[in-house]
Specification:
This protein is an all-alpha fold and 177 residues long. The chain has five helices and no strands. Helix 1 packs antiparallel against helix 2, helix 2 packs across helix 3 and helix 3 runs antiparallel to helix 4. The radius of gyration is 18 Å and the shape is elongated.
Length: 177
């Protein structure tokens, strides 16, 4: 039997990641071209948050694979089912790729990594440039995907009123009547 709502731990990790990802996107954009005294602080905050997100996305993938989750509404059209699955795969892929690209970028550039993590790419400035560009473009794609995800959640809540948003909402969930 499928549950009506996601497991409380899955909901907690989802909303914690949502807050951190949105914060990261704003921190990342703020760092671009910023040569003010706050720039080193933004970089360290970006690195630490990226590492926290890497750990959380691994936990989240584990939760998604092991805990039962609510099905999509039975009357959802096939195209929307496909779009939901594809967008979630893209989100998970980007949530995993972004911190790994950042870590590899720091490694290739010879920069310090949080918690003195080992290098995962060789020190190579050309590779660093490619990874930095990939990290930036992946950030834009993640931002767009988050906006689509938010739009779909609002569509389920305000237009379809089918309980999809309620199934992931933080805190106690009232039973549908």
């Amino acid at each position: 039997m499928k549950p009506e709502v996601f497991h409380p731990l899955a909901r907690l990790v989802h909303w914690l990641m949502a807050i951190l990802i949105i914060s990261m996107l704003f921190i990342g954009v703020s760092m671009i071209g910023d040569l003010s005294p706050r720039h080193p602080l933004l970089i360290e905050l970006h690195k630490a948050t990226g590492l926290a997100l890497l750990v959380l996305v691994i936990v989240r993938i584990g939760l998604r694979l092991t805990l039962p989750h609510p099905p999509l509404p039975a009357d959802l059209p096939a195209f929307q089912r496909f779009a939901a699955g594809a967008s979630h795969l893209l989100l998970y892929g980007l949530m995993l790729a972004m911190p790994l690209l950042g870590w590899a970028m720091l490694s290739a550039g010879g920069y310090p990594r949080p918690l003195q993590l080992p290098a995962i790419a060789p020190h190579d400035l050309q590779l660093y440039a490619v990874l930095r560009q990939a990290h930036g473009w992946a950030g834009y794609l993640l931002f767009a995907t988050v906006l689509v995800h938010l739009g779909a959640a609002l569509m389920h809540a305000l237009v379809r009123r089918d309980g999809v948003l309620r199934s992931m909402w933080p805190g106690p969930v009232r039973r549908s009547e």
